[in-house]
Amino acid sequence: MKNTLFRILTNLPTKYVTTGIILIGLLFAYGIIGSHFILGLDLIDSIYYAVITMATVGYGDFVPKTGIQKLFATTIALGGVALIAYVFNIILTNFQERMTKYSKGARKMKSIEHMDSYYILCGFGRVGKVIYNELNHRQQNVIIFEKNEDICENIEESESTIVLNKDATEDNLIAKLAAKKCKSVIISIGDDVTNLFIVLTIREINPDAWIVTRASKSENFTRLRKAGADKIVSPEIIGGKDMYLESAKPHLLRLTVQHTTDEIFDEFKIISSHGCTLENIDYHIPGIETPLSREIKTMDMKEGKRYRDFLNNNKEAKESLDNLYNSVNNIHSHWISGPNKKILEALVRDLEKQEMIIGRNLTDKEIAKLTKKIRK
Fold first, then answer.
1. How many CB atoms lie within 10 A of CB 39?
2. Tell me: the pLDDT tens digits for 48-87?
3. Which one, of 353, 354, 359, 352, lies nearest residue 374 by Cα?
4. Mind listing the domains of the chain with CATH numbers?
């Protein structure tokens, strides 16, 4: 019976530890009162008898004789063993859980130290998941801050994804991690006040960090900008994908080039070899400022080869692409994201050997003027 009570009580959730302590106090009071009225002991002896019976020591100096006295002693002994065992078990369990969390946290911090670079994503809600998918698609290292433990448990960790079950507003860890190795901090929490506090926390320690934050209300744009946010995004307007592109702007290049369709694969090989991603292609029709855009979003050589083989084996598709290139005088712009500016510079140098580069980060208006002159 004693073992059965112990198993029942020790399987209760840890939140009942306070209840256990209260029950021990009540049992102790019950033991003192019962010892006085049932055994006829004075106050000191009642306290003494309650303690040794609850602890099942039982020195034998006070022996219950009647049936009710024996029943009273039995209830104190069983209740004492079960409740004390329960409380101590919970204390030890909590200690083990904390030690486990500490050990996991230490391993995660070591993994972060070994990362060459990473993005910090604060908040893993509906928008945060979209942003993470964009980052993960581009094989980026990501450190996720999420205070909801249930959400954290459902995120699959890997060498490139570290999940920290922390409230970014409660300590300066996020600010410390937003250092040189951090490409960008993306704050995707739905509460503007929380976002404002996180921006202030990061900016105070890292004036050079690139911070992109979500804003739910347009009137908070100014406040967030003054707090130090580099980009403020309303996901309801542009969505999670564009939020990623904004965060990558220090490492995003719009390169306007001129080449024929026969050079497409060679160009893609150069982009892929530098570990960069071809995000979009803009085709600049002469006389029209707004380009014709086409989403690519790939760095995979297999996709490049498949497209090359498709063109080689599909005459009509090749002719259609040739017509498109001819209509824009072979002038188009690539949106290319890369790990850092140094790699993008090396990419440009290699592309210059392959094709004619007209300009970098030109606006649609500037390109429209150029295509108009070339047309004439």
1. 19
2. 888 888 877 777 777 787 888 888 888 888 888 887 777 7
3. 359
4. 2-106 (1.10.287.70), 115-247 (3.40.50.720), 252-375 (3.30.1340.20)
